[in-house]
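Changelog excerpt

This revision adds worked examples to the README so contributors can see how folded entries look when concatenated. The first example is reproduced verbatim below.
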Amino acid sequence: MTGNTPILKITGLNKSFGGLQVLQEIELEVINKEIISVIGPSGSGKSTLLRCICKLEPADSGLILINGKSIYDKSGSETKVGMVFQQFNLFPHYTVMENIIKPLMTINSLDNKTAGKIGQELLFKVKLEDKAASFPHQLSGGQMQRVAIARALAMNPDLILFDEPTSALDPELSGEVFQTISDLARDGMSMIIVTHEMSFAREISGRIIFMDQGRIIEEGSPEIIFSKPDRERTRSFFKRIKLIN
């Protein structure tokens, strides 16, 4: 990747489900090591945007480039985007270690020893090195989400997408996950975080994107978006959740 090439570049992205258009002419760039939080009301298209970026939903039109290459381009090496979901999506019949290394062995064709070494390093990174032999049902929600983060990291992604990573957790367990994401931020990981946790978005993000009705309504630094939003729709959203008077 060249210094001038954004990690992610989206132009003219549209997506509909039946007669409902959920993304409308989305334009977005993410540069290396940038952390962007996407906020907005439910149903505004935030999660669909992430699902299009990681190819879980096909776009109707528009262009999505990772490191200058279309995500649908089958030539050359695969573009690498990690995804962390609301509900963890761990395999219940695999141990913690197996949840992390199975994709490495099946997709990247690594042997068990090499994959296991990567798995150990990542469990240490998310502070779960003592849970390698545990099964998901033996973990707290916060621990399961941290395993999901380790699994996403195992594929050495250029960009990680977080879709409401703490929505299924109570505040104490959310703190564990926020700390892990903050650690990734300090390591220079590029991230897009869909979140309803405004204080976390303000703290961790270099840029905030506000979405409504499938469009990016406003974007800017946390200081501007949270303190002096330009658009009336943004202000009304914050008034409703009592962030501004």
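The second example, added in the same revision:
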Amino acid sequence: MFEGILTALVTPFRNGEVDEEALRALVERQVKAGVDGVVPCGSTGESATLSHTEHRRVVEQVVKAAAGRIAVVAGTGSNSTLEAIELTQHARDAGADGALLLSPYYNKPTQEGIYRHYAAVAEATSFPLVIYNIPGRTASNITPETLGRLAEIDCIVGVKESSGDLDQVAHAVALCPDDFAVLSGDDALTLPLLSVGGKGVISTTANVVPEKMGDLVRAWQAGKPSEARAVHFQLLPLFDLLFCETNPIPVKAALEMMGSLSGEIRLPLTSLTEAHRGPLRDALQAVGCLS
């Protein structure tokens, strides 16, 4: 259901508040670039430091700005199953097309606990759900076997795989049905993941170069691996710089350099260090983002 190129949207801030005008402009940029969807309120969207009121408002504004032209998959994850249900119900009622839910963090559930968490959200919402496996942030990994079980639930339609382990991803693809979308959560691993049966990417880099991320995925889908590799290697230095510090610190700095937003970020995250600003600017110039 959700395949191709989806952009993990940043949340713009100005003077401590969500900059809704900049947010709407970001969505419009993605629509014009031809992406398949946007994902507000994920890790890149600083969901951890959004209030519940802000979280709901961001989802509502993104749905309104997208206006049915591209899919909206709202981040609704929580380490509380009841809270995840409430956020997912809100996304559904706000008009989103689906929800992205990271695996419960901090409390480190067992594989059975992870399974029951997602099954409970699915049962309570009957809404298309994409699992988000990012062990580096949650301190727990969703195994391919657990994904295989979850893929049997009708409204669980895909996974954003950010384990960084291609062997694990390959086993997940093998254990899940063909219509279950395994999506890359690591921009630099998009091409390798596609090669083992992945269906696309939920991309941070697409905030900056949505057309080029689209070119990479579309070239592979069109059976043109050499073209996909050429785009991958062109973007590789930018991938490195956009993750040189904790996401979304570098991507917000990049968008500020491009004049798209203020670059403001919320504590405990801090602005990009000076040592990385020059190399990031050079990488942006190399891909045509800066004059």
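Reviewer comment on example two: Residues 162 and 185 are 4 Å apart (CA to CA). Strands lie at 4-8, 13-14, 17-18, 37-39, 71-75, 98-102, 129-133, 156-161, 181-184, 200-203.
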